Amino acid sequence: MKTIKDYALLLVAILALAGCAATPSQESTGQYLDDTAITTKVKTTLLNDPEVGGLAINVETYKGTVQLSGFANSEHERQHAVELASSIAGVQSVQNDIRLK
Fold first, then answer.
1. In 3-101, which ranges are continuous DSSP H helix?
2. In the chain, what are the domain boundaries?
3. Alpha-carbon span 85 to 41, nearest angstrom
4. Is the pLDDT of residue 65 over 80?
């Protein structure tokens, strides 16, 4: 026979697991780690490319969508940054919010 204590333990377990799940407006822990890795790879690629001023471009990732912001010296540099970001594994899409200086 189940007791209130058994049900309480079950409820705690369910709530603990629900805390790790993703919702439409919130990332799961795994997704957050994946997005962090994508952000790091994109930023490193931008910093290592001689055509892009990687220090002037900010990178944020949410659920595989990379947002680039900051400043570029030319339209070519702006578009090249998007191409580089799109080439990274795991990137679903790129939002280009880079402004020209």
1. 4-18, 29-48, 75-86
2. 23-100
3. 9
4. yes
